[in-house]
Amino acid sequence: MRRPAIRPASRPARVVVLVSGTGSLLAALLDAATDPAYGARVVAVGADRHGIAALDRARQADVPTYVRKVRDFPERAAWDRALTEATASYEPDLVVSAGFMKIVGQVFLDRFADRYINSHPALLPSFPGAHPVRDALAYGVQVSGCTLHVVDAGVDTGPVIAQRAVEVGADDDEASLHERIKAVERAMLVTHVGRMARAGWSVEGRRVRIP
Ligand code: GAR
């Protein structure tokens, strides 16, 4: 199905980044966005928990932060609405899930249709879900990698924007493989968020086109 193309704004694209942990992907975006030619700036960082390094990194960069914890709401749908409202208040052109370990609901997906993207540390459709690096190692694959995709209602099933391969070493454990994947993932994310910000994009069926 062809949906309207998302055109670049005449100002730097407003990007909200969602995080749950260390925030090395966020840090790469913040660093890239210090260059005015990059075409995007991080206008807020949202999280599902307090006390994570990613929030410290955002504060260091003077970027506003917000936290919406699932447990603080009577039901998941109320959390989804609250996360949607908080995110929307920063008027993002693009919302990036960069190590955000929550599945958002339909209200969020509808509000940010085609504008919500996720970086995943495996070559989708292999190894979706919460433990992709562990699952890839357990399967015994010799090549894994990372995928940047538009988020849809499934778990890691949305249209692919970019993928990069990373070889699995015989001595790799989950931590060592994940670190090597993340090094490649940061570059992939920075490259494609910048391209989307500068050129716009469209989602046509399973294809994401960046002019
Ligand atoms: C990244 O590898 C990201 O793809 C992954 O968490 C890591 C975050 O690293 N996300 C998922 O697994 C989501 N399913 P960081 O906190 O250092 O940016």
Structural class by secondary-structure content = alpha/beta
- Give me the number of helical elements: 6
At CATH's second level, what is the architecture of one domain? 3-Layer(aba) Sandwich
Helical fraction equals 25-40%
Sheet with most strands: 7 strands, mixed
Low-confidence stretches: none
Strand order of the largest sheet: 3-2-1-4-5-6-7
Share of β-strand residues = 15-25%
Output the helix-strand order: EHEHEHEHEHEEHEE
Give the distance, in angstroms, between the N- and C-terminal Cα atoms. Answer: 18 Å
Please count the beta strands (DSSP E, at least 2 residues each). Answer: 9
Q: Please, what is the average pLDDT?
A: 97
Instruction: Report the CATH topology name of one domain.
Output: Rossmann fold
How would you describe the overall organization of this protein?
This protein has helices at residues 24-32, 53-60, 76-88, 106-111, 132-139, 174-199, and strands at residues 13-19, 40-47, 65-67, 94-97, 116-120, 143-150, 160-167, 202-204, 207-209. It has 211 residues and is α/β, with parallel strands linked by helices. The chain has a domain at 13-120 and 146-163 and 187-202: Rossmann fold (3-Layer(aba) Sandwich), CATH 3.40.50.170. A seven-stranded mixed β-sheet has the order 3-2-1-4-5-6-7, with helices on both faces. Strands 8-9 form a two-stranded antiparallel ribbon. Helix 1 (24-32) runs parallel beside helix 6. The longest helix has 26 residues, at 174-199. The mean pLDDT is 97. Bound molecules: glycinamide ribonucleotide. The site of glycinamide ribonucleotide has 16 residues, from helix 1, strand 5 and helix 6.
